[in-house]
Write a structure and sequence with these properties.
Distance between the termini: 34 Å
CATH topology of the largest domain: Rossmann fold
Largest sheet: 6 strands, parallel
Strand content: 15-25%
Number of helices: 10
Radius of gyration: 22 Å
Order of helices and strands: EEHEHHEHHEHEHHEHEEEEEH
Structural class: alpha/beta
């Protein structure tokens, strides 16, 4: 039987008293640094018969404070959707994901209450792994020393982990992944993530314009502040057939055809037409081709799409995918 994976939006948990091995962090992208942390949590959980647990915050605390201070430009972009994050954590054998609402109450919560309410009563924490500079509670007053003192009182062990670095000694972080994606450097993003960059979503109905232009597309919603650079990419679509389907995709606000400003991922499958409405697909980004452009007319746009499709065919012919 497959071990269960539970998502909790409220603590204490409603269905179990099982003690937990916990790490806390936003885990955006679940990159190689996060993977190292989670492997450690899972290993300790197995040895101690605990439930391997990740506690994360929604929205990102930085996003919450940026909105409250009316500084939207400080809101971090998003590498992975909640679905992609949950998938990645489940694959790494995490059994409990806590989506702790970050609101005024949590922002004002004293550090001692954070420990007692969330870690002790909320999760029956017995083992905790955090970064050496982990801060929590009102005005970030809580630190690792306070956690260790609380651990002695409540019976949980606190361990810290220094930064995980890449082969050149640079820290692997969500910020680094965001920077790589923002400039279309998919190779760098792949080194940091440990795999190619992917976005998943359900195929939704679009304006059907692509169909009339000879380029039908699968339309997929992405996070509003998607970390990937807007533009045209060579991609593969997973989950729609028994093998990945080659394609070319446009990520952006489609300035030639609409002024709605909503970001969308439009995927054209090469030499393949399938009815995918409502289906869940995962789009793998292989190569950045060009920036999103506003064309003077539809013929100019079609000529550019012809060129993109040919670039994608050449890529797949060369790479044998």
């Amino acid at each position: 039987m497959k071990p269960s994976f539970k998502i909790y939006r409220h603590l204490p948990r409603h269905d179990t008293q099982r003690p937990s091995a916990v790490t806390i962090g936003n885990m955006d992208g679940v990159h190689r640094g996060h993977q190292a942390i989670i492997r450690r949590v899972v290993q300790e959980a197995e040895q101690r018969s605990l439930a391997p647990t990740v506690m994360t915050f929604q929205p990102h605390p930085r996003a919450y404070f940026a909105q409250r201070g009316q500084r939207p430009e400080l809101i971090p972009t998003q590498i992975s959707s909640l679905r992609d994050k949950a998938w990645a954590l489940q694959k790494l054998q995490v059994r409990q994901l806590v989506l702790q609402r970050f609101n005024q109450r949590l922002a004002d919560m004293p550090a001692e209450a954070f420990i007692e309410e969330l870690l002790v009563h909320g999760l029956q924490t017995r083992w905790l792994l955090v970064g050496e500079d982990f801060r929590y509670g009102h005005k970030r007053m809580g630190d690792v020393a306070l956690l260790r003192r609380a651990g002695r009182r409540y019976g949980f062990i606190v361990e810290t982990l220094s930064d995980v670095v890449d082969e050149h000694g640079y820290r692997i972080s969500s910020s680094e992944v965001r920077t790589a994606l923002a400039v279309g450097n998919l190779e760098r993003a792949e080194r940091l993530l440990g795999h190619t960059y992917r976005i998943s979503g359900h195929v939704i109905h679009g304006q059907k314009l692509g169909r009339s232009l000879g380029y039908p597309t699968l339309n997929i919603r992405v996070p509003t502040l998607c970390a990937a650079r807007s533009g045209v990419y060579i991609v593969r679509a997973h989950g729609l057939a028994d093998h990945p389907l080659n394609g070319v995709a446009s990520l952006g606000v489609r300035p030639t055809v609409t002024d709605s400003g909503r970001i969308m991922l439009e995927v054209h499958l090469l030499d393949r037409h399938i009815d995918a409405y409502g289906k869940l697909t995962q789009i793998e980004f292989l190569q950045y081709l060009r920036d999103e452009e506003k064309f003077p007319d539809l013929p100019a746009m079609i000529a550019a799409i012809d060129n993109d499709a040919q670039s994608a065919r050449d890529y797949f012919a060369l790479h044998g995918l």
